[in-house]
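re: that chain from earlier
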Amino acid sequence: MKEEEEVFESETGVTISVLMSVYNTEIELVKRAIESVLIQDFQDFELIIIDDGSESETHIQLLEYVEKILHEVIYIRHTNRGQSLSINRGILNSKGKYIAILDADDEFKPNHLSACLEELENFDLIASTTDTIVDEEADYFVPDKFDFDRLIHVDDCILFATLFGKREVFETIGFESQYAADAHFFEQAAKSFKVKKADLRTYIYYRNNPDSVCSTLKRETQLLNS
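^ sequence. v structure.
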Protein backbone atom coordinates (compact mmCIF):
# COMPACT_ATOMS: atom_id res chain seq x y z
CA MET A 1 0.00 0.00 0.00
CA LYS A 2 1.39 3.40 -0.92
CA GLU A 3 2.20 5.74 1.96
CA GLU A 4 -0.06 8.46 0.56
CA GLU A 5 -3.01 6.04 0.68
CA GLU A 6 -2.39 4.39 4.06
CA VAL A 7 -5.76 4.48 5.82
CA PHE A 8 -7.02 2.22 8.60
CA GLU A 9 -10.58 2.87 9.72
CA SER A 10 -13.74 1.47 11.21
CA GLU A 11 -17.27 2.14 9.98
CA THR A 12 -19.23 4.46 12.23
CA GLY A 13 -21.88 7.13 12.23
CA VAL A 14 -21.09 9.77 14.82
CA THR A 15 -21.98 13.19 16.14
CA ILE A 16 -18.43 14.62 16.38
CA SER A 17 -15.29 13.97 14.35
CA VAL A 18 -12.12 14.83 16.30
CA LEU A 19 -9.19 15.50 13.96
CA MET A 20 -5.55 15.35 15.06
CA SER A 21 -2.57 15.94 12.78
CA VAL A 22 0.74 14.43 13.96
CA TYR A 23 4.18 15.30 12.65
CA ASN A 24 7.21 14.00 14.59
CA THR A 25 5.51 14.73 17.92
CA GLU A 26 6.95 12.88 20.93
CA ILE A 27 4.91 9.70 21.27
CA GLU A 28 4.14 10.21 24.98
CA LEU A 29 2.55 13.57 24.14
CA VAL A 30 0.51 11.97 21.35
CA LYS A 31 -0.69 9.27 23.74
CA ARG A 32 -1.70 11.94 26.25
CA ALA A 33 -3.69 13.75 23.57
CA ILE A 34 -5.41 10.58 22.33
CA GLU A 35 -6.29 9.41 25.83
CA SER A 36 -7.83 12.80 26.63
CA VAL A 37 -10.26 12.19 23.75
CA LEU A 38 -11.08 8.63 24.73
CA ILE A 39 -12.17 9.68 28.26
CA GLN A 40 -14.59 12.42 27.17
CA ASP A 41 -17.91 12.56 29.01
CA PHE A 42 -19.53 12.78 25.55
CA GLN A 43 -18.72 9.53 23.78
CA ASP A 44 -20.48 9.82 20.42
CA PHE A 45 -17.37 10.69 18.42
CA GLU A 46 -14.76 9.35 16.04
CA LEU A 47 -11.06 10.17 16.38
CA ILE A 48 -9.16 10.63 13.13
CA ILE A 49 -5.36 10.69 13.39
CA ILE A 50 -3.56 12.09 10.36
CA ASP A 51 0.12 11.13 10.36
CA ASP A 52 1.60 13.99 8.35
CA GLY A 53 4.61 12.07 7.07
CA SER A 54 6.35 11.62 10.42
CA GLU A 55 9.89 10.30 10.26
CA SER A 56 10.48 6.57 10.64
CA GLU A 57 10.86 6.24 14.43
CA THR A 58 7.85 8.41 15.25
CA HIS A 59 5.76 6.74 12.54
CA ILE A 60 6.53 3.25 13.85
CA GLN A 61 5.79 4.22 17.47
CA LEU A 62 2.54 5.90 16.48
CA LEU A 63 1.43 3.00 14.29
CA GLU A 64 2.17 0.46 17.02
CA TYR A 65 0.11 2.46 19.50
CA VAL A 66 -2.77 3.07 17.10
CA GLU A 67 -2.97 -0.63 16.20
CA LYS A 68 -3.64 -1.41 19.86
CA ILE A 69 -6.68 0.89 19.89
CA LEU A 70 -7.70 0.60 16.24
CA HIS A 71 -11.36 0.08 17.14
CA GLU A 72 -11.29 3.57 18.69
CA VAL A 73 -9.69 5.50 15.81
CA ILE A 74 -9.27 6.10 12.11
CA TYR A 75 -5.61 6.32 11.06
CA ILE A 76 -4.43 8.12 7.91
CA ARG A 77 -0.85 8.62 6.74
CA HIS A 78 0.44 10.72 3.87
CA THR A 79 3.62 12.55 2.88
CA ASN A 80 4.32 15.77 4.78
CA ARG A 81 2.08 18.64 3.72
CA GLY A 82 1.51 20.65 6.91
CA GLN A 83 -1.24 20.86 9.51
CA SER A 84 -3.73 22.83 7.43
CA LEU A 85 -3.80 20.40 4.50
CA SER A 86 -3.70 17.41 6.86
CA ILE A 87 -6.79 18.65 8.68
CA ASN A 88 -8.47 19.26 5.33
CA ARG A 89 -7.89 15.61 4.46
CA GLY A 90 -9.23 14.59 7.84
CA ILE A 91 -12.42 16.53 7.11
CA LEU A 92 -12.82 14.68 3.81
CA ASN A 93 -12.52 11.34 5.62
CA SER A 94 -14.78 12.27 8.54
CA LYS A 95 -18.42 11.35 9.14
CA GLY A 96 -19.36 13.56 12.06
CA LYS A 97 -22.08 16.20 12.11
CA TYR A 98 -19.59 18.45 13.92
CA ILE A 99 -15.82 18.88 13.64
CA ALA A 100 -13.35 19.32 16.50
CA ILE A 101 -9.56 19.64 16.31
CA LEU A 102 -6.81 18.66 18.74
CA ASP A 103 -3.10 19.44 18.48
CA ALA A 104 -0.95 16.36 19.10
CA ASP A 105 0.94 17.98 22.00
CA ASP A 106 -2.15 19.34 23.80
CA GLU A 107 -5.16 17.70 25.45
CA PHE A 108 -8.88 18.04 26.12
CA LYS A 109 -10.37 18.32 29.58
CA PRO A 110 -12.95 15.52 30.04
CA ASN A 111 -15.89 17.84 29.31
CA HIS A 112 -14.44 19.60 26.26
CA LEU A 113 -16.71 18.08 23.61
CA SER A 114 -19.89 18.41 25.67
CA ALA A 115 -19.03 22.01 26.59
CA CYS A 116 -18.41 22.90 22.94
CA LEU A 117 -21.71 21.33 21.88
CA GLU A 118 -23.58 23.34 24.48
CA GLU A 119 -21.81 26.57 23.49
CA LEU A 120 -22.56 25.99 19.81
CA GLU A 121 -26.32 25.88 20.33
CA ASN A 122 -27.06 29.14 18.49
CA PHE A 123 -23.94 29.29 16.32
CA ASP A 124 -22.27 27.48 13.44
CA LEU A 125 -18.66 27.80 14.63
CA ILE A 126 -16.89 28.70 17.85
CA ALA A 127 -13.30 29.28 18.90
CA SER A 128 -12.53 29.27 22.60
CA THR A 129 -10.07 30.44 25.18
CA THR A 130 -7.74 27.84 26.67
CA ASP A 131 -6.29 26.65 29.94
CA THR A 132 -2.79 27.70 28.90
CA ILE A 133 0.27 26.03 30.42
CA VAL A 134 3.38 28.23 30.42
CA ASP A 135 6.86 28.30 31.94
CA GLU A 136 6.94 32.06 32.22
CA GLU A 137 4.65 35.05 31.68
CA ALA A 138 6.15 35.77 28.26
CA ASP A 139 4.80 32.44 26.96
CA TYR A 140 1.29 33.89 27.00
CA PHE A 141 2.24 36.16 24.10
CA VAL A 142 2.59 35.23 20.43
CA PRO A 143 3.43 37.20 17.24
CA ASP A 144 0.53 39.09 15.70
CA LYS A 145 -0.38 37.80 12.23
CA PHE A 146 -0.19 41.31 10.73
CA ASP A 147 3.00 42.38 12.49
CA PHE A 148 5.42 39.74 13.79
CA ASP A 149 7.15 42.38 15.92
CA ARG A 150 3.93 42.92 17.89
CA LEU A 151 3.00 40.34 20.52
CA ILE A 152 -0.57 39.57 21.55
CA HIS A 153 -1.99 37.47 24.38
CA VAL A 154 -3.19 33.98 23.42
CA ASP A 155 -6.63 34.80 24.85
CA ASP A 156 -6.98 37.36 22.06
CA CYS A 157 -6.09 34.85 19.34
CA ILE A 158 -8.11 32.36 17.34
CA LEU A 159 -6.39 29.06 18.07
CA PHE A 160 -6.53 26.26 15.50
CA ALA A 161 -7.39 23.43 17.84
CA THR A 162 -10.14 25.29 19.71
CA LEU A 163 -12.23 25.58 16.55
CA PHE A 164 -15.44 23.57 16.83
CA GLY A 165 -18.42 23.69 14.53
CA LYS A 166 -20.80 22.26 12.00
CA ARG A 167 -19.14 20.23 9.26
CA GLU A 168 -20.75 22.49 6.65
CA VAL A 169 -18.47 25.32 7.80
CA PHE A 170 -15.32 23.22 7.44
CA GLU A 171 -16.38 21.79 4.08
CA THR A 172 -17.18 25.26 2.77
CA ILE A 173 -14.09 27.14 3.97
CA GLY A 174 -11.13 24.77 4.32
CA PHE A 175 -7.73 25.67 5.80
CA GLU A 176 -4.94 27.37 3.89
CA SER A 177 -1.22 26.73 4.41
CA GLN A 178 -0.13 29.96 6.08
CA TYR A 179 0.75 31.46 9.44
CA ALA A 180 -2.46 32.24 11.37
CA ALA A 181 -4.44 29.83 9.19
CA ASP A 182 -6.80 29.48 12.15
CA ALA A 183 -7.58 33.21 12.32
CA HIS A 184 -7.98 33.36 8.54
CA PHE A 185 -10.42 30.44 8.65
CA PHE A 186 -12.48 32.08 11.42
CA GLU A 187 -12.59 35.40 9.56
CA GLN A 188 -13.72 33.74 6.34
CA ALA A 189 -16.35 31.73 8.18
CA ALA A 190 -17.72 34.89 9.80
CA LYS A 191 -18.71 36.19 6.37
CA SER A 192 -21.26 33.43 5.83
CA PHE A 193 -21.89 31.74 9.18
CA LYS A 194 -22.70 32.61 12.80
CA VAL A 195 -19.43 32.53 14.75
CA LYS A 196 -18.46 33.17 18.37
CA LYS A 197 -15.36 33.44 20.53
CA ALA A 198 -16.28 31.51 23.68
CA ASP A 199 -14.70 31.56 27.13
CA LEU A 200 -14.59 27.84 27.92
CA ARG A 201 -11.03 26.90 28.94
CA THR A 202 -11.76 23.20 28.47
CA TYR A 203 -8.83 22.88 26.05
CA ILE A 204 -5.37 22.53 27.63
CA TYR A 205 -2.86 24.43 25.52
CA TYR A 206 0.82 23.76 26.23
CA ARG A 207 2.63 26.99 25.35
CA ASN A 208 5.83 25.71 26.97
CA ASN A 209 6.68 23.66 23.87
CA PRO A 210 9.84 25.24 22.36
CA ASP A 211 9.28 23.52 19.00
CA SER A 212 5.83 24.96 18.29
CA VAL A 213 5.30 27.22 15.25
CA CYS A 214 4.55 30.24 17.44
CA SER A 215 7.57 29.69 19.69
CA THR A 216 9.89 29.25 16.71
CA LEU A 217 8.59 32.37 14.98
CA LYS A 218 8.82 34.35 18.20
CA ARG A 219 12.48 33.36 18.68
CA GLU A 220 13.35 34.16 15.07
CA THR A 221 11.73 37.59 15.30
CA GLN A 222 13.52 38.35 18.54
CA LEU A 223 16.86 37.36 16.99
CA LEU A 224 16.28 39.62 13.99
CA ASN A 225 15.51 42.54 16.27
CA SER A 226 18.39 41.96 18.67
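Residues 175 and 181 are 6 Å apart (CA to CA).
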